[in-house]
């Protein structure tokens, strides 16, 4: 169905039924030139197989300050405070084991300055969370730790806030991940 820009019913609502800002074009579901369908990702969520969703949910509430938004016998959904869910925890098969293929880590870009990031480091250690490493990515610092099932998460403190500059630096340094010695802060 073709849209008519002069038809008020074609303005304001996106093909995926989001309400648009006044000057925002609707999602180009199909590129007119190539006829290919293109996704326009606006938000993301992650779903993980875990041994025990309730045990893991308690950890995600405690360590990441998430809130449970829905739960069933085999699953728990958690939010960082806005969305219906940012992370879903799904009960894995009884015999499931973690393998070398799959999720490497889930990066959480956190607000605040470097000292706040160091305080998160201190918080993880205080709670007995396994911290894997701290690294310098040239566009920010990464603090890697694991959940109860060994899934790796990252608190990312961004130091290059201009996205175009960030892309340039990542390419220039070859997606750098250098050891970064930093002391945690407590309180
Ligand atoms: Fe990352």
From TrEMBL:
Residue spans of biased composition, Basic and acidic residues class: 7-24
InterPro entries named in the record: Glyas_Bleomycin-R_OHBP_Dase (IPR029068), Glyas_Fos-R_dOase_dom (IPR004360), VOC_core (IPR037523)
Positions of region (Disordered): 1-35
VOC domain: residues covered: 42-158
Organism: Streptomyces bathyalis
Protein name in UniProt: Glyoxalase
Top-level taxon in the UniProt lineage: Bacteria
Entries under Pfam families matching the protein: Glyoxalase
